[in-house]
Amino acid sequence: xxxxxxxxLVREAxxxxxxxxxxxxxxxxxxxxxxxxxxWLPRAPREALPVLALQAIAAAAVLASVYWIEHAGPAGP
Length: 77
Known about the structure:
This protein is mostly helical and about 80 residues long. The two termini are about 30 Å apart. It contains 3 helices and no strands. The chain is about 75% helix and about 0% strand.
């Protein structure tokens, strides 16, 4: 709100193809993880849990890196 008061409504530059693909593919990845969990956890929980854990860790790492990139302060002096 403060930004809008100081600078007005300014259209942001497009984030690019990579950002749009990320925004489309992450929900798809979460849906695939859910489907995998629903189908394989009842059949073979011992084998499915490590796979789901790796997928969750990978998704968390990607989201953490995006957060870090977006909220990093200015580089250098």
